Structures are given as structure tokens and as C-alpha cells.
């Protein structure tokens, strides 16, 4: 899957990120949250209804777990959809979350609280990949195409609409040699794929005197 985060390892400094508060990228290519609350964000990452895998490496100063503050990851700001939380007593490790986006904000938003004076939170290797697209809306079921044919004396003639077939039948009704067998057939052809739908067919028959009668099957 394609990586959606720009500069997730912070090798290019803060390129692609919007940092606020204490958040800053240091020379060791880590995002650091020292001594105070900070945030890091990237816009246009999530789409509503799609599912994502979000991973982030987090550690405290020298791996001392008691020096870390809680880290939260959101879709949008801290008032939007919470993706995952890394508690303040967690081990230094890569944490992975799966989320289906419900907020329309679309930004990844990482927050860190105050880890205490002289202590730091480090964040690195932020990654987001889409694992499933949003479900299709409307239409319901496989796409289909309609093939319309008029049957005149057993011969299949392609027509663009029922009205065109009616005009065709009227033309034949005015001729001296009237066909004995006439019908208009609309055949539904399902798209091939995982789901198969049996063909459905409607038939419209015309008799010279009685007009149009409709038979469906």
C-alpha cells in the first residue's frame, strides 16, 4: 500500500508537518516533545469511510518509561476522531492502530502532554497506509448494461429505446406484408466479477390489432 505520510521519519526536518507548542524536530531526526504540550499535524491524510493502518514509534528520554507523557493520535484535532493512545507508562516501541475514518477533517494530529521538566517524548517513523477503500454508495449491486432488441419475424434488430421499437412496429403495421411475430426484448447483462447475477428479461409484444401487451419473466 502507498505511504500517505510525507517525511514520516523526519529525515527532512519538519517538512510536511505543522508543529505547535513544544514540538520540534531535532538533529537525530526525531520529533521531540520537551517539557510542555505540543502537537504535530499533516492535512489531507484520511478520507471518510476508508480504513487505515496507522503506526508510530514512541519513546521517552533514554527509554525511561516513567518520563513519558501520554501520546494521542487523532483524525483531525483533539476534538475529532481518536485513532489511538500510547499511555505514559508504555514501553519504547512501535504502536499500530487500525481505524475507519469517521471524521471529515482528514488530518493526522499527534499530541503529547507535559512529560515533566527535563524529560522528553520522542516520536519517529510515523506511517499511514490505506487498507480498505470507503464502501460505494448508491446504485446497489453490480453495474449492468441494457441490451435492447426488437424481434421482427424472428430476426433481432437493435434499437435504442422502447419508443424506437414502437415506431418500428408501426412502420411494419402499415406495410402490405405484415410480420407474424413481433416483440421488443430488454435483456439485462450483469458485469462479470465476484458477484454474479442471473440475467433478467422483459418482453414486450405487439400485435397489429390489439396494440402492445407486456409479458415479463
Secondary structure elements and pairings:
Blueprint: E1 18-21, E2 24-25, E3 31-34, E4 38-42, E5 51-60, E6 71-75, E7 81-86, E8 93-100, E9 108-112, E10 120-132, E11 144-152, E12 155-158, H1 162-174, E13 182-190, E14 200-207, E15 211-216
Antiparallel strand pairs: 1-4, 2-3, 3-10, 4-9, 5-8, 5-10, 6-7, 6-9, 11-12, 11-13, 13-14, 14-15
Rg measurement, Å: 32 Å
Total domains: 2
CATH architecture call of the largest domain? Sandwich
Count helical runs: 1
What separation lies between the terminal Cα atoms? 46 Å
Main sheet specs: 5 strands, antiparallel
**What portion of residues is helical?**
under 10%
C-alpha geometry: rod-shaped
State the name of the first-level CATH class of the largest domain. Answer: Mainly Beta
Amount of beta strand: over 45%
User: Could you give the order of the helices and strands?
Assistant: EEEEEEEEEEEEHEEE
Low-confidence stretches: 141-146, 188-198
Structural class by sheet pairing and helices: mainly beta
Number of strands: 15
Question: Which strands sit side by side, in order, in the main sheet?
Answer: 1-4-9-6-7
What is the averaged pLDDT score? 77
For this structure, what is the CATH homologous superfamily of the largest domain? Galactose-binding domain-like
What name does the CATH topology of the largest domain carry?
Jelly Rolls
Characteristic key phrases:
single chain; 217 residues; mainly beta; 2 domains; five-stranded antiparallel sheet; 45% strand; rod-shaped
Put the structure in a nutshell.
The chain is mainly beta and 217 residues long.
